[in-house]
């Protein structure tokens, strides 16, 4: 698996890289194979990759894509989002893979005038309307990051803001709980890093004139998480009505303080400067606000306008991604045809297992089985018969060992078995049983003879490889016909 995030270091110091987290966020949002931010080079004749996250071992991270002849260049020159469903072409023509991948769909959107955000998948034949909406939000987020990087020179506070954004775009977002914790992390980091007195995130309730606090830092204890507050004649109501940000660096005239929720509110101090950023989440009815406040007048509010708007937009994006991440985890933990672990989840479990056996100084055995003529079977047989065949094939995979094991899908027609701490003599036994049971090339399903062509491959960590990437590469390279 290739997983990385890069950004042109001419613009940023080495410790600031908010793109990596954004790529992971994007991949999790739509169950992608690859997400890549592809931008114009200095000569403006090619597109280069400056940030990516990929599950493919064949992704070309240093690819240079001609502006006039590449698919991505064509999308960039047209300047409009593209969704290619039911992709049946050769993925090597995409310019970002060294070998063929079973890409089923891709989508891309312009990132301002700088490049395109590319997303593809091998999980579904098309992306949904919600996915396309997420794509546009992610492209806008990437554009904001690039705009901030261009302004970093000579502005220490911009670099500090980029550090803040990088930490908010946490690259370790692997579970739904991480997204649920986002708002708590966000308000704490904002108060700690910016030295503002208070920050909160709230969602607007369907009932008119009310909001619920999702997370809060620095204000009165009255504004605790879950508290429902009325909003009337305050700056939150104005921002929601106008769907526009409020940035106030100081009081005007005879004002004594700035009203956030409603007149007479008790929030712990009297704000003298303020930012209220409205955001949208899952749909047009899901709205919220990011609120920042200080006891003193401060030009920092106006200086950081772009940063506050970015974080507000990110809050809505995270809320949307959290929903889809939870949906994906529930629906796609298991493969719908074979009943084994789904491709993404199986690979995720191998990553966890290899860390576990490394700590325990034991081993991890991986057996891969590839049905080479799977596409032909789909075309020649009724779908119900194919599904029954895959269920029976999966059951044969499960009985190869009596030890605790994990079985899952790793590609179309490809299935794997993973066992921890397996003695060498049992490794030979499992491999031999696989050759005998799965390598026959013939299966009888409901009275129908099904002929298939199978390859088997194995790998053992740490004896034959040193890391997760090596484990999958060794098993894939050892696949031979039976």
Low-confidence stretches: 5-16
Shape: elongated
Structural class: alpha+beta
**Count of β-strands:** 20
Number of helical regions: 14
Beta-strand residue fraction? 15-25%
Biggest sheet architecture = 7 strands, antiparallel
- Give the terminus-to-terminus CA distance: 27 Å
Radius of gyration: 26 Å
Helix content: 25-40%
Mean pLDDT: 85
Written account of the structure:
The structure is a single chain. The protein is of the alpha+beta class and 482 residues long. The protein has 14 helices and 20 strands. Strands 1, 2, 3, 4, 5, 6 and 7 form a 7-stranded antiparallel β-sheet that branches. Strand 6 and strand 7 form a beta hairpin. It is elongated and about 90 Å long. The two termini are 27 Å apart. Residues 5-16 have low confidence and may be disordered.
Q: Secondary-structure map with pairings?
A:
Layout: E1 3-4, H1 18-30, E2 34-40, E3 46-54, E4 64-66, H2 71-78, E5 82-84, E6 105-111, E7 115-121, H3 129-150, H4 156-168, H5 176-180, H6 182-194, E8 198-204, E9 210-217, E10 228-230, H7 235-242, E11 246-248, E12 273-280, E13 287-294, H8 300-303, H9 305-331, H10 343-360, E14 364-371, H11 374-380, H12 383-398, E15 405-411, E16 414-420, H13 424-437, E17 442-445, E18 448-451, E19 454-461, H14 468-477, E20 480-481
Antiparallel strand pairs: 1-3, 2-3, 2-7, 3-4, 5-6, 6-7, 8-9, 8-13, 9-10, 11-12, 12-13, 14-16, 14-19, 15-16, 17-18, 19-20
Task: For this entry, give a set of tags.
single chain, 482 residues, alpha+beta, seven-stranded antiparallel beta sheet, 20 strands, 37% helix, elongated
């Amino acid at each position: 698996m290739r997983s990385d995030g890069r950004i042109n270091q001419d613009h940023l110091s080495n410790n600031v890289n908010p793109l990596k987290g954004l790529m992971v966020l994007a991949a999790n949002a739509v169950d992608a194979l690859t997400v890549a931010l592809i931008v114009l080079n200095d000569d403006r004749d090619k597109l280069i990759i400056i940030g990516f996250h990929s599950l493919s071992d064949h992704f070309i991270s240093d690819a240079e894509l001609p502006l006039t002849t590449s698919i991505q260049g064509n999308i960039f020159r047209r300047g409009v989002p593209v969704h290619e469903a039911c992709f049946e072409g050769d993925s090597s023509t995409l310019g970002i893979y060294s070998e063929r991948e079973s890409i089923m769909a891709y989508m891309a959107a312009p990132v301002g005038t700088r490049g395109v955000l590319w997303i593809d998948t091998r999980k579904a034949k098309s992306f949904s309307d919600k996915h396309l909406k997420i794509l546009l939000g992610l492209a806008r987020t990437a554009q904001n990051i690039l705009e901030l990087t261009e302004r970093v020179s000579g502005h220490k506070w911009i670099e500090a803001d980029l550090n803040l954004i990088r930490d908010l775009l946490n690259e370790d977002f692997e579970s739904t709980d991480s997204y649920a914790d986002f708002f708590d992390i966000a308000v704490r980091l904002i108060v700690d890093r910016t030295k503002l007195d208070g920050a909160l995130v709230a969602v607007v309730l369907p009932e008119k004139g009310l909001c619920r606090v999702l997370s809060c830092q620095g204000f009165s204890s009255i504004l605790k998480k879950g508290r429902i507050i009325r909003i009337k004649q305050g700056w939150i109501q104005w921002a929601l009505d106008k769907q526009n940000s409020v940035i106030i660096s100081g009081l005007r005239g005879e004002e004594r303080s700035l009203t956030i929720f409603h007149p007479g509110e008790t929030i712990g101090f009297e704000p003298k400067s303020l930012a209220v950023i409205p955001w949208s989440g899952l749909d047009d009815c899901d709205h919220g606000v990011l609120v920042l406040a200080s006891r003193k007048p401060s030009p920092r509010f106006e200086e950081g306008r772009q940063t506050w708007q970015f974080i507000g937009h990110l809050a809505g994006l995270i809320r949307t991604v959290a929903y889809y991440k939870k949906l994906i985890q529930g629906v796609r933990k298991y493969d719908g045809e074979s009943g084994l672990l789904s491709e993404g989840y199986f690979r995720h479990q191998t990553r966890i297992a290899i860390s576990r056996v490394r700590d325990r100084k034991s081993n991890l055995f991986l057996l891969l089985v590839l049905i080479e003529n799977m596409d032909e079977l789909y075309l020649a047989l009724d779908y119900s018969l194919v599904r029954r065949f895959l269920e029976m094939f999966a059951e044969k995979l499960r009985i190869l060992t009596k030890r605790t094991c994990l079985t899952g899908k790793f590609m179309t027609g490809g299935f794997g078995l993973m066992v921890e701490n397996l003695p060498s003599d049992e490794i030979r036994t499992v491999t031999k049983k696989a050759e005998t049971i799965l390598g026959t090339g013939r299966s009888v399903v409901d009275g129908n003879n099904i002929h298939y062509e199978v390859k088997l491959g194995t790998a053992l960590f740490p004896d034959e490889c040193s890391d997760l990437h090596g484990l999958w590469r060794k098993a894939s390279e050892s696949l031979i016909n039976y």
